[in-house]
Design brief:
heterodimer; A: 299 residues; mainly alpha; three-stranded antiparallel beta sheet; 5 strands; B: 152 residues; Four Helix Bundle (Hemerythrin (Met), subunit A); 5 helices
């Protein structure tokens, strides 16, 4: 009996230890970004394509004020409400005190400078596919933006979602840098896949989620309930979206649908971003969407 | 007596519901209709800008004039209090419209300015349509960003 209890205790201890190890944040190997000098003007394009300002500008900001990354927008979810933090270059309230490696760990690994997991409301699950050069350029550009001394507000989450360590298990289930579309032929498709799956993080709203909030990639881009409020986010696979490639590109440029309705909701910010990218980039996104399988399941 | 009162209450509730639905069908049709008129005329101008329709200065001018005409409609009567997407079906108008009526009205005026910009250049040549459409699209987006909910 004592041996049994001892054995059980040992097994329990082992399981707890394993859980602790498995849920640990996994930052990049040290020195990953040493010697990569970023180009701020290229970074502006990455910043726009990645839609950073769309979530991190102040709730009522318009025009140029959207480049002040004060935070404060609220994102309501089944797990609680996330508040976008201040990521302006302010040393006290923003990320002015971060190193480039801190930034890379946040964007590519979802790990804070203190070594804690970040919540995946921040779409590092998509950004993890970002090129190292784009990451370095983005970092260089973000230093040039105005600082804001507005403090970040805490997320409003209940138990157990307020325990960041538990995200380690979530990441084991849902976090990897594989492409969802395994094959992309030619320069345009490669670029389109990169924009959709990495920078523009389209899947975050256009793909349904399971009970734990992970993306169901077997139904990739087939539409989903609005993650932040009422209504539905439409599907983009050919069984949902019948527009041809030039119509998709025109929508991303102007916000006009083929019958000249105009974009609404959070997609307005997305179109604002795409309208600033090149015509080639919009065509690449359109080509990628036209190549999606019906029903969203990749083979 | 109780049954009578219950019946009366039931009738009152039903009529209240019917009256409410009826109340908003006219302004709903009117405000959505004006956006349809905008869309049809934008379609003419957009088709010409993209080269899908042959450019015709007269048709472009008429389309632009129609846009301006719509933007001159006074919006107040089309947006009665209580006709947001939170209150009734069949609309994507967010409740914030009524919280920020001044801002909403100024965004409608901005659409008018963009339409006038199109009116000025529509007959001057095909290459003038694209930039003017860009201004119109920006005016649409500026308002939809805050005041139009996603499709349900």
């Amino acid at each position: 009996m004592r041996r049994l209890i001892g054995g059980l205790a040992l097994a329990g201890l082992f399981a707890a230890g394993a859980a602790w190890v498995l849920s640990a944040p996994r930052p990049l190997p040290g020195g990953s970004f040493a010697g990569v000098a970023g180009d701020a003007s290229r970074g502006a394009q990455v910043f726009t394509a990645a839609g950073c300002a769309s979530c991190h500008h102040a709730p009522d900001a318009e025009g140029e004020a959207k480049l002040v990354l004060t935070g404060g927008q609220r994102f309501v979810s089944d797990f609680g409400t996330f508040l976008a933090p201040n990521i302006s270059p302010d040393p006290d309230h923003g990320i002015g005190g971060w190193s480039e490696e801190d930034f890379a760990n946040a964007v590519l690994r979802g790990v804070s400078p203190e070594g804690a997991h970040l919540y995946p409301a921040f779409p590092y699950t998509a950004y993890t596919r970002m090129d190292d050069r784009d990451l370095a350029d983005l970092w260089a550009y973000m230093q040039t933006l105005p600082a804001s001394d507005t403090p970040s507000l805490p997320h409003e989450l209940g138990f157990p979602f307020n325990i960041r360590r538990s995200l380690g298990f979530w990441k084991l289930l849902y976090f990897n840098d594989d492409w969802v579309m395994p094959e992309a032929e030619g320069q345009q498709m490669v670029r389109g896949r990169y924009l959709v799956e990495a920078l523009a993080h389209c899947g975050e709203c256009h793909t349904p989620r399971d009970m734990l909030g992970g993306l169901d990639t077997s139904r990739w881009l087939t539409g989903a309930p609005n993650p932040n409020g009422r209504g539905t986010i439409p599907g983009l696979t050919p069984d949902h979206l019948s527009w041809d490639a030039s119509e998709i590109a025109y929508y991303l440029e102007t916000g006009f649908t083929p019958d000249f309705d105009s974009v609404g909701g959070h997609m307005v910010e997305v179109v604002e971003n795409f309208s600033q990218l090149s015509a080639e980039d919009r065509a690449a996104v359109a080509a990628y969407l036209k190549a999606l399988p019906e029903g969203g399941e990749m083979r | 007596m109780t049954r009578f009162l219950t019946g009366l209450a039931a009738i009152a509730i039903c009529t209240a519901g019917a009256v409410q639905a009826q109340d908003f069908s006219a302004p709903l049709k009117a405000r959505q209709g004006q956006f349809r008129i905008l869309a049809i005329n934008l379609g003419t101008l957009g088709g010409m800008a993209q080269g899908k329709i042959d450019y015709d200065a007269e048709a472009a001018q008429m389309a632009a004039d129609s846009l301006v005409a719509v933007t001159m409609i006074h919006e107040g009567p089309l947006w009665p209090e209580g006709s947001s997407e939170m209150d009734i079906d069949g609309t994507r108008a967010k409740a914030e419209i009524w919280d920020n009526w001044e801002d909403f009205a100024s965004k409608w005026s901005a659409l008018g300015a963009a339409a006038e910009g199109m009116q000025t250049v529509a007959a001057t040549g095909q290459e003038a349509l694209g930039p003017a459409l860009g201004q119109l699209g920006a005016a649409c987006k500026a308002c939809h960003d805050s005041y139009r909910a996603p499709e349900s």
